[in-house]
Amino acid sequence: MPAPPDRLDATDARLLQALGTDPRATVMALSQRLGLARNTVQARLARLEAGGVLAPFESRVRPEALGYRLSAYVTVQVVQRGLEEVAAALAALPEVLEVTALSGAADLLVRVVAVDADDLWRLTEQVLALPGVQRTDTALALRRYVDHRMGPLLERAAGADQHPPVG
Questions:
Q1: Rounded to the nearest 5°, which phi and psi values hold at 23?
Q2: How far apart are CA 25 and CA 117, in angstroms?
Q3: 67, 106, 109, 148: which has the fewest C-beta neighbours closer than 10 Å?
Q4: What is the pLDDT of residues 150-167, one digit of tens each?
Q5: Does Transferase appear among the keywords (predicted)?
Q6: Domains of the chain, start order
Q7: Cα–Cα distance, 41 to 50 (Å, whole number)
Q8: E strands along the chain, which residues?
Q9: What is the rounded distance in angstroms from the CA atom of residue 28 to the CA atom of residue 24?
Q10: At 99, is the secondary structure helix, strand, or coil?
Q11: Confidence (pTM)
Q12: Which of 74, 75, 78 is nearest to 114 (CA)?
């Protein structure tokens, strides 16, 4: 698989903005909307997909729609040199949505979902029992104020020719 581009240009950003507005737009509709040749749009989309720029479609599905009404963040401290094994074990748990390596006191930040408090208890006990896990700390997500978004960054990148980022 080709490597993702080092940086998206303004045209890529405009294309991604258009897809954000209408994810099911055809290549022809995108080319008309952006004033680009159909082949240009098709080639850019293929490059973005092959480069891993576009997240999988499943990332748009909300866990609540599947009955997982609780969301929590679990920080995990791992025995030295055990990150890969613990991360692989966490990836095998369906309720684990993301695992991110951290610097600082905790080694991993794990985003999990659960049906209810009892299910969250079961899941956190399961994480704590994984070989290589020394300690966990769980924080229940109460309310999301800002959903995952890329729009503001795409807007900035789409206008990059006129206003480069400061810094």
A1: -60, -20
A2: 41
A3: 148
A4: 899 999 999 865 544 545
A5: no
A6: 10-58 (1.10.10.10), 63-140 (3.30.70.920)
A7: 14
A8: 70-78, 96-101, 108-114, 133-141
A9: 11
A10: strand
A11: 0.78
A12: 74
